[in-house]
## 1
Amino acid sequence: MSWSRASIRRFLLVLLLPGLGAVFAGELWLAWRTASEAADAAYDRSLLGAVKSIDSSISTASGGLGVELPYRMLEFFELTAQGQVFYRVATEDGLVEIGSANLPAPPRPLLTGQPQFHEGAYVGQAVRVGSYARELDPPLAGPAGPQRVVIQVAETLEARTGFRRSLVLQSLARDVLLMVAASALLALAIAWAMRPLDRLRQEVDARDPQDLTPVDDTGAPAEVRPLVQAINHHIARNREQAEARRRFIDDASHQLRTPLTTLATQVAYAQREADPSAQRGVLDKIRTQLDETIRQTNQMLALARADSAPPQRQPFDAVALSEALVRQWWASAREQGVDLGLDAPDGPVPLQGEPDLLREALANLLHNAIRHGGAGGHVTLTVRADASGAVRLSVVDTGPGLPPEELARAGERFFRGGGGALPGSGLGLAIVRTVAQRHGGQMQVAPGSEGRGLAVTLTLPAPPTSEAVSG
């Protein structure tokens, strides 16, 4: 199983338990060192005591080196050491030597009055040796100058090793218990920490499929709250899409019921009509009704796309888009006797957005303006960019316009002005407003120049400065 799909509990345990194991191993090594130091400190003090006892028994009064060994003390020391004990007393030059010869020499030169302890091997056994040197007073007869005597006592390591092992085993038992307790507490802590996620899972699983209300994050830990907020954000997007689908179905049923009923009536009338010229008149009306129904359907699809389609932004030139639209609608305007013009800068005006949706919105404005402008009217598509980089796209006509009391409702779905004599769906301005909002802008509807006609303006925010203009 990959790490990305592994259980969080398992992941934490796999991550933390080796760490605890490493701590346990480090603790065991530290316990061994501590036990070794403690054993050496304790037994070295006993070894030094034996050295001092022998030292106190050394005499040079006779001119030679004499030692009255403290046998009882050595027997007690050997009993305490639980092994063999060796000793050596010799002059530093080795000319006089008493006791066990060839005991391991100290690794460093002996300083007068300072004991030195080291380990070595003697007669095939590992031993711990304590060495001590002091000046002879009075010195031995013969050589002139200061003389030193070296005292060494060695013991085998059975007792020392047993003591060390006992301390390590005690530490090991303690550490194993601590490891088990820490692992159990870690597992309990992880299980307790995962409870909010378990509650969240149960709450989401228990929800009705149609329930799109936000998940309550009250009482959720700070680490879980961003997850709940992300889930709520996703639920909100799904709710918006569901609402957009519901609106589309409502709009379709609202808009298509009447045209389809009219078409059915007209077809039935044409079937009953025997006069070919009368039939042709009915078919012309059916064609006109079909064209209007197709236009309404396309408007509803455009509105649904503007409501819920995922954004696909790209840089483009507002002037180039406007020029193409004017060329597209120029023939239709000419047929109806409308003067269609473009007022735009000579250079490009960059925008960042969805050019297809913006083209659909401006096409709706031009269609409405040309239809309502009438013969002899004027329609102008204006492109302007202000100092901040925001772009204004306006369609101004000299038609009948809207009464002041209806301007505020312009852009509502299915709203048509009271004075409108031409057929329509009331969706054109709704599409324009939705597209403007989708681009982070807004739509304003106001009377045209000198109070005549209507001026609809889309104000869109400036594009990022790093974006290039796409043709």
## 2
Amino acid sequence: MNFKQILSNINAGVILISTANDSYEILYSNEWIEAYAKKSITPGTSLFEAFELSQSERAMLNRKVKSALFLNAPSFLSAEHEGYLIPITNQKITRADTFPFMQQDAAIMPYDAEKQQVALIIYDFTSLMISQRDLRDKQQELEEAIKELKKAHKNLAEKTALIDYQANFDSLTGLANRVLLQDRFERAITAAQRTQTLIGAIYIDLDFFKPINDTYGHSTGDKLLKMAGDVISLSVRKSDTVSRIGGDEFVVLLPNINDLAPVIKIAENIINKLGHPFTIGDHHLRLSASLGIATYPANGDNPSTLIKNADIAMYHAKRIGRNSYQIFEDYFAEERMAQTNLEQALRKALSDPNFIAQKGFSVVFQPKVKHLEQGAIKTVGVEALIRWAHSEHGVVSPEKFIPLAEAAGLVSKITQFVFHESCKHLKLWRVIEPDFMVSVNLSAYDFDRPNFCQELLETLKYYGLPPSAIDLEITEHNALLVKQDNYRKLNDLRNFGFKLSLDDFGTGYSSLSFLAQIPVHTLKIDKEFVYKTQYSPTDKAMLESIIKLAHSFKLDVIAEGVETIENLEQLASFGGNYFQGYFFSKPLEADAITVRLQKEKEQRF
């Protein structure tokens, strides 16, 4: 066995080199040491280039090689004694990955002194090389693992923060949500018990937000909610918490107060600031709000009771006219309970297919008259009015149950019932008076039904009546609530031949441009407006202007609430030509209308 065979079989790292020139050409190397080469090793490859040795490393190696050749005896490389390279175990900068045997005690053995050939050997290199390789691999893996751990920790922290934010804050407005509000209330109550102070709760509901959302779209609605939240936040103290608890409802928590004064001041501030116009794109929108106030401990000793009672107070503010605040009173809760019971009774009644006959609903009709020459009058039509006589609640006013039906999504059933009853009686009345008409009130929510117009036409067809026999009334307030997309249905109804009236004019916020746009035939002036003209010269002048304005738009005018001869004469002098009110008749049963028409016909002939 020759020397190369011996070297290839020993458990060591071996390189056989020629030092005849400055490049130190590699003549042979075993596989163990080749794993550390930076370049592929073939016979003739420079040792310096293969392992990318630095100038100091080259100088040190060259000195040891010359010593071995001169003495013709082994020369040793010792990292510990030479100090050029430090073992990796010292955790200092090292070039171990460049030339590993220079970290360990290695031998330079003369191979052929005449040819200036030497062998570089690291004894037991196999185990040493594996150890060093593993150390580097483990160190690299550890470094990568640390990087990944830091990255994962950062992501976890971000996700935890996001989850915490979503759990405690409203995603749309950035305000506190119910969860955080509950926590803040509990902390405030604990502090109030310790300091013997009060806590205020303000429940805020935006008035008529839904029609704005429906008309201008959810994107505009969301922006308006966010802007409203910002306005409320700017209206309170830094120590207060503003929360959006759902939809268009907000709650303000006011801790550490001594009396109601700061709560009332903030409530008034909120109402005032929300009343300023909001500009979103090309739209200039106006809001109002109904607020309810409750205090700890007078109106509740826990968060849920406080919020509930503030809600009840808010509902009372909304019921008596909106755009105001109310401070909770015990009887508010009784009223709210009665209202809830009434709503449940209404739901039950309207969910019954036979509710008309069994649940106390009926329709009465109030005459509409035309003022003729020499003081004569003629009944030209009637307005259909629904009534509800409940077995427990007694006679319930439409002013109470119609809003409940609208809120519950049940008003369409009432409209259908009234329309059918009106058509049934109108068929007979038109035999007596061929041009006789019935007015039926509509809700803005009726227009949400996809087949609304078709349903009306089918009912008329069933009773053999033309659309021109029906006057469809929609209040000024409801007209403003009709979604933009549903205005097409108003035009469709007019094109089908229905008469359209704008009811309760003078009670809402419509402009003259709105009056010119809505496709109505008749303007009905609200009875409250008529009543005020008896005492207010300004209202009197406005009424006269409205009647003249309506005529300029080629609209008929019907004045409601005519109760005295003075009302009639004044309205007639302003140019009014159609009237309705108790001066002429209260609402009557259908049979009484039939008798009235027959008597008027007999008197004419």
## 3
Amino acid sequence: MYQYWLRFFGLLRKHLFGGFVLLIMLIIGNLGALASPYFLKVIIDKVFGEGDFQLLIQIVFSLLGLYVLRVGANFYADYLYTKISNKITQELTEKLFSHMLKLPMFYFKVNSVGSLVYKINNEVSQVRRAFTGSIISMINSIITIVGLTVLMVLLNLELFIIICLLYPLLILITKYFTPSIKTIIENTRKEESDFLAFLTERFSNVKFIKLFYSHEYEGFLMKNRINRIIDLNLKSTILTSGSNNLSVLLLAFIPLVVLVYGGKQVLESIITVGTLIAFLQYANKLHEPFRNIVSLYVDLVKTSVSIKRIYDVLDEPIDLESASDELIEMGEICEIKFEDVSFAFNDKQVLNKINVIFEAGKKYALVGKSGSGKSTLIDLLCKLIKEDSGSILVNNIRLNEIKTKHWIEKLAVCSQDYFILNGTLYDNLHYGNSSVNKSEIDAILDQMGLSSDDSDTFSSKTLGETGSTISGGQRQKIAIARALLRNPEILIIDEATSELDSLSEQKVFEYINNQPTIRLVIIISHRLSSIQFADEIILLDEGKASEVNSIKEHISMKGGFYKLFKNQLVNSEVARDM
């Protein structure tokens, strides 16, 4: 766990000067607080003992100056600490978010959205709370303890040694409870993360829940999850409260020991009354910072768990282009080859030594049963995943040797999982297309048949989360328009017209055909109306390209393609034209 803290404090390097100034302010503030008991000793032993009123006035003005200095130092320390801690947590959040976006797609397949949101929100929030509260209190307490220790040693070394004999017991109590507290905290964090994932999943599929009328069942699941979290919180409270209260009880003995042993020394004239009162006040002050440290230690254990969970994500390997300076760019795309490409997921062979050629100037359709590898092939082409074996060649250059940024700029994907921002229409069309102007947007809207829709809805109102305020067809038109605004060389349409009527779909493909920048179109669809525009149709079966023909050749062969689309071909104009 300590290695995570060392890595975390690496973020402090650029704030060393501010941290040094902060430390000075904290020391000044604490010294001001520690001066009072010593001055009280002088007043009792010197001023009252010798009747020196002039010395009393000097002490009062000295204390007044110290109090003003202390207030100023504490104010600036609070401001400086808040500024530094928020800057560090901002850097941590940005670093975590940026790293997550670079993680391979496999990571997002095996980790729920809720757990990822929990880590970037709740875990970082715990670190922020620790930095803006716990750690500053811990530093203050440590400075206070050091100052108190020095002053008590100077006042009476013998008394100090006696009270020090009680502190090993305090360490033993903390050490005994810590492992159990840490385990409970880790289990609680996991349950809370799973709970957030549960909520995310349910609210994303509320329509499904309503259609199955599963309200009571979902309530039952919710109750069980909350009960598990409550049980863990109760166990955590028992352990932390037990640790804290045993420590407080032990700390409460210290002033009593000082009073008994120190009182005996006063009666024997070994020390003065002023010394005993000053020492007793310092011993009482020692109680508070030690109690804070014991209490804050539990909070720092929670923060340790959060830091570990954050760095577990940051240690996940990203989609590296470690030799980015050696990666190449390329000119216009002429040909893309899949040569003996294989890919497996969860021990299932999705693609098995597939061989496919895509030539510029043509439109291709990928068809096949669900799970035949169509979307996987596209993910490989988009460099979202990496092939297990074989080669993907672009103009006889390995795809892995081409810079990802350069390659992504050449293609656009209209997916069945279209991404609609919770913003206006223009916000959505500008995403990834920051250089396009309003006239270009208006032109594409007209071509997509969106300009005739309610202009107020698109110009000023937000489209809702995932486009909840508009129809499925409108969402697909927006996704296609956004892709076309990129002026790509390769356009991939993955079930992206499934919610369009046949006339709208035809207009979309006619517009695509007239785009000079698009050199290659790849369509994935289970609808015959979508793939009829393709020059070649590739049938995937058991991870291989089993049939590659034009639609007419497929129908005349009556092979796997014909069997797959037989029901649609019965009433199809395409079949009647054969």
## 4
Amino acid sequence: MTLSGHLFSAPLHTEIQMVPVRLIEEPDTQEVNPGIERLGVMQSVLLKLSGHSERPYRIVDGKRRVRSALNYGIEQVPALITDGTRGQIAAASAILNAARSSHPLDEARNWQIALEEGQFGDVKELAAHVRISVQTIRKRLRLLTLPEDLLAHIGVSIAEGVAERMANLAPEYREQAIRAAERRLDAGEKFTAADLKESQTARARDFEESLDTLFGPEPLLAVPRDPLTELVQEVRRLAALGGVELPALVRALARGVPGLNEPSSTPAEPPASPRLTVTHRPGRVNLGLRPSERLP
């Protein structure tokens, strides 16, 4: 079921209500907006029913605003109340967050839930709704392949771009980078692009060695890896990174190399040896002897 019609099972009530913060479930963030202390909560939060009598509302969008209200002693916040399912709420959060700067992991988690719950048919449909490129969405979703304790440091001790490059590494090199990052973080240091470069260099070096093994002369010693498999994996990784479907890539390669998809089943015949043509003439036959060597 893809997103169509109303986002929720019933139309969203657009009337803003003032909701006491004591009735809202505790937000799972400690971040605050200092401006709220002076100006109050200017932008409404999005809430849904939690099913609990003591705190009947759960935050869909606006965790920092609610946390700020709690910290600064603000008793009520403006809110919209809705009734969405898990997938619908994730879709709503994805669309709301796309309208302003949001933490990349919050976006990625909402996108993943919305896709898993069938609110969008695929990444392309999601991209059309949130107005973010397919490539950016895929990069953000790949962040979720990193360990949770590492994700907590993104934007603090690990830059988002560094984390994206780490998530894009092949599994064996990604594990090396993760261990290197954990050592840095345990020492209270940041994990930077320079630290990641070692794992990226190792991947490039091993890939070059695989190509040398595949296309170069026979090695003196057996190499304990399958270069063809590594080449296929690298092509798949690059295709996924660029948002290219593999069937389309194969078709493009076939167009560029005529006959690529039509291997010959009959082995090529060796070139024919030059044939000696003998011309018969009446009379004597010249055997190619010098005059002094001719027979009497």
